[in-house]
Structures are given as structure tokens and as C-alpha cells.
Amino acid sequence: MSTTSTMTVHVEYPGGTRFVYRLPVGQIEEFVAAARLLGVWVSVVRELRPRHLHSVPTQAAA
Fold this sequence. Notes:
Elements: E1 6-12, E2 18-24, H1 28-37, E3 41-45
Antiparallel strand pairs: 1-2, 1-3
């Protein structure tokens, strides 16, 4: 398992095409700068802690 920290980047290209990228944190600044030179809209999403699923106890049938 990799320990490289990543962040989610939303990108919208001219014409409305949208992509979501997961990039290593160290590459975000360079990616955003290059995208803006191309006139692309970029939004970096702040990472939240992963959600953990919890089991919910069920009631016994009556």
C-alpha cells in the first residue's frame, strides 16, 4: 500500500468536459498552473478523513 498523500482535483475543460483526478500533493501546484495556462477551470478539493462504515444492529423479528 502506498503512503503517498493525494488530493482530488476537479477540472472542467472548455466545452464542458469534466474530469476528476487524484494527484500526489507535491504535483498539485504544478498541475494547477499548467491547467490555468490552457484556460481550464480547476478546483482542488480539500481532503476529509475517510468515512468508516459502521454496522447497524437489526431488531429481531417479532
